[in-house]
Design brief:
Length: 262
Amino acid sequence: MPSHSTIDQMGQPVFVPAKPKRIVSLVPSQTELLAALGLDDEVVGITRFCIEPPSWRKTKKIIGGTKRFKVEEISKLNPDLILGNKEENDQAGIEWLRKRFTVWMSDVKTYEDALAMIQSVGLFTDKEAEASRLVHAIKHSMQGIRSSLNIRVLYLIWRDPWMGVGCDTFIHSMICKAGFLNCLEPLQRYPQLTESQMQSYHPDYVFLSSEPFPFNETHIQELKRLLPDSKIVLVDGAAFSWYGSRMLYFADYINQLRIQLT
């Protein structure tokens, strides 16, 4: 069978069938991308966290979570292509799948990485033109983000312990694209934070992500007591963290958020 010889974003050589017909996606944002590229018939398996498009939860096989995916269920689907991600998927499970199936892994830490991922997926799924149009539309939409307000943001993703977003992450890249200043830029990845550390950053705003932790009003009040000079805001975590077709709506979301903040 003809195939594309490519290198995935983890630097691994991958031979993808020229027109894959049985695709399993292990990443919610990449599942949404596959739908945007028009691959409804080709996608056969998704995770329980793949909530977009909603109709696929009824028409595709649910193969477990992003970390605890069920390799036996994936094997039954006999996929000719599996899409995963370095950060979101279990490494041991991915290695097991690599020995048996074609696995293409993304490693998205920047806005540019995300655009490259979209182009690559479009290329080896025979949707190159659709992917190019999507990338062009995303780039055009990002030009609509209003100029920087020099707002210092502490972006939190977890409680017990408190965890924030440092550099070397896609979320950090999108915080910067939005024109905000990330208080945790000197730190790597997703650092755990003490209360005194959070106070030392003197953020203008604390952004509480809607995912993966379910922050609520209790946490807002807790942070108001801890950081009385900061404004606490619940934000759409998917807008900041889903790389793929969701990026097309990022600029509109940020402009609305800026209105809310100012």
